[in-house]
Structures are given as structure tokens and as C-alpha cells.
Amino acid sequence: MKKWFLSGLLACGLTLGYAANAFADLIVGVVDMRSAVEKTESDGVLKKLKKETETRQNKLKASEKKILAFQQDIKENGAMLSQEKLQEKANEYQQMMVDLQKEMQTYEQELAELQAKLLGGVQKKMSEIAADIAKERKIDLLLERNEGGVVYFQPSFDITDELIKRYKAK
């Protein structure tokens, strides 16, 4: 029994030693894709998204103003209306609010789809370039700075600037 225990202990020690050596040879890189997308702007993707967002926000603000004006009208003239007319106005107001919420949800969904469509191509190209850089530098593990939970890294591990330079060159 003692012999098995010692054999197991020796095997664990050798395994841990081998794993430590494997990690010692590991080359890690870090890339900030969000920053790279923001800094390139070569495709005008972010400008297009911003413009579309502003257009939709303006439409929503116009709808909100219309609802506020309707609400103000009910407050000012509500005393002069019959109970039946007041109920009609209340129902109309509720329907306007429901329509505004639907419009907001639709805009959110459409903007998310547009963002995925426009940024998807850029991110795919950047991922390919990042993979090429990793292969050239013989990087074993490339982490995305914002998504990978990276807290600290040596600045020499960061390939973001090179990624931006190569993306702009293509």
C-alpha cells in the first residue's frame, strides 16, 4: 500500500512538473477589439450606426412630444369633457403609450440587427488579421481584453495597435 501511495505521489509530481514547463513556454497576447473597431472607422460603420440611432431617437422624441401635448390637452380641457369623451381620451392616450413602447422595441431590435450586420464583417476581418498576427508572433493564446476578463497584462503582449495598422492597410 505504501508503495502504491509513493508511486502515485511521484506520478503527480512529474505531471505537475511537466504542466509547469508547458505553461512556461506559453506565449500569450492580448487584443482590444472594441478599441480597434472604434479607431479604424475606415468603413464608416460606427458613423452609420450613430446616424441611424439619432434618426430613430428623433422619431421617438417626436412621438413623445405628441403624447405629452395630448396629455396636456386632457389636463387643460378634461373638466369640460363628458365622462364618455374623457374615457375615450384616456383610452386613446393608453393606446398611444402602447404604440410608443412597441415602436421603441422595434427600433431597438432593428438597431441591434443593423449593428450585427455592419460590425459583423468588420469584426470578422479583424479576427482574421489578429489570428495572422498571432501566428506570425507564435502566440499560443490570444485573449480579447474586454471579453476575456483580463485584469492586467504587460503592454508588450498587446497587439491592438498592429491590428489597427494592418486593418487600415487592407
Description:
The chain is mainly α. It has a single domain (2-169), classed as Protein Binding, DinI Protein, Chain A, CATH 3.30.910. Helix content is 75%, strand content 5%. The protein contains five helices and two strands. The chain has helices at 2-24, 33-40, 45-77, 83-136, 160-169; strands at 28-31, 141-144. Strands 1-2 form a two-stranded parallel sheet. Helix 3 (45-77) packs antiparallel against helix 4. 9% of the residues are buried. Mean pLDDT is 81; it is low at 1-14 and 16-20.
Structural class: mainly alpha
Mean pLDDT equals 81
* Helix-strand pattern: HEHHHEH
- Amount of beta strand: under 5%
Number of helices: 5
CATH class: Alpha Beta
Largest sheet: 2 strands, parallel
- Which fold does the CATH topology refer to? Protein Binding, DinI Protein, Chain A
Distance between the termini: 66 Å
Q: Identify the CATH architecture.
A: 2-Layer Sandwich
Share of helix among residues? over 70%
CATH superfamily, by name, is: Skp domain
Number of domains: 1
Strand order of the largest sheet: 1-2
Query: Which oligomeric form is depicted?
Result: single chain
C-alpha Rg (nearest Å): 29 Å
Give the CA-based shape: rod-shaped
Q: Based on DSSP secondary structure assignment, what is the total number of beta strands?
A: 2
Low-confidence stretches: 1-14, 16-20
Topology:
Layout lengths: L1 H23 L3 E4 L1 H8 L4 H33 L5 H54 L4 E4 L15 H10 L1
Parallel strand pairs: 1-2
Helix pairs in contact: 2-5, 3-4, 4-5
